[in-house]
Amino acid sequence: MVVSALIMTGRGGLPGTFASTERARHLVADALAGALPGEVLDDVLLAVGELAANAVRHTASGKPGGTFAVVAAVKDGLVQVAVIDQGGPTCPAITAEPELFAQSGRGLAMLAELGEWGWTGNTRARLTWWRRPLTAPAPRAVADAEAR
Ligand SMILES: Nc1ncnc2c1ncn2[C@@H]1O[C@H](COP(=O)(O)OP(=O)(O)OP(=O)(O)O)[C@@H](O)[C@H]1O
Ligand SMILES: [Mg+2]
Questions:
Q1: Less crowded by CB within 10 Å, the N or C end of the chain?
Q2: Which Pfam families match (predicted)?
Q3: Which protein residues touch ligand 1 with a CB less than 6 Å away?
Q4: Dihedral angle computed from the Cα positions of residues 92, 94, 95 and 98, in that order, rounded to the nearest 10 degrees
Q5: Can you give the pLDDT of all 148 residues of the chain as single tens digits?
Q6: What is the CATH number of the domain that holds 78?
Q7: Atom 20, ligand 1: which residue's CA is nearest?
Q8: If we measure between CA atoms, which residue out of 71, 90, 76, 75 comes closest to residue 129?
């Protein structure tokens, strides 16, 4: 059953600026706050911020006139968010081993710790998604707990 599903950013999307990443977080928070436990919403907002920042930093969405869109849904015990960008030459990929003091290269690795992520698309447009269960700990946390 769909508890909450929405495309917040409308047909034109949000301008591809870092200010819009904050706007995206607020839109998702306003839309989903009542549907999620607080700690889950924290993860969701972190994911939205990271995915939106990637759209701005790594794709044509961040070029003058560029836009990106955000989708969020709570469905079947999962919360899912996605950012749709305007593409570029690189693909979303976890940086294998960022330098110890590197200031970047950690966003997607962090999202993989908090849930599952993936992408689809091509050089002209990509949709990058992240999801996690509403109640159970994120998959990686379960694995860690069992290993102890
Ligand atoms: N939407 C995207 N489109 C194209 N390439 C992407 C996208 N998102 C990420 N990437 C690629 O994947 C790499 C890893 O992304 P990740 O978010 O983990 O690190 P980062 O954005 O470089 O740094 P940080 O997120 O720590 O500030 C990026 O450097 C970029 O090359
Ligand atoms: Mg990033």
A1: C
A2: HATPase_c_2
A3: 50, 54-55, 57-59, 85, 88, 90-95, 104-109, 126, 128
A4: 130
A5: 344 445 556 567 899 999 999 999 999 999 898 888 889 999 999 999 999 999 999 999 999 999 999 999 998 899 999 999 999 999 999 988 767 777 777 899 999 999 999 999 999 999 999 999 998 665 566 666 666 5
A6: 3.30.565.10
A7: 105
A8: 71
| Three-state secondary structure string covering 28-95 | HHHHHHHHCCHHHHHHHHHHHHHHHHHHHHHCHHHCCCCEEEEEEEEECCEEEEEEEECCCCCCCCCC
Q: Which pLDDT score, from 0 to 100, does residue 107 have?
A: 93
Q: How many domains does the chain have?
A: 1
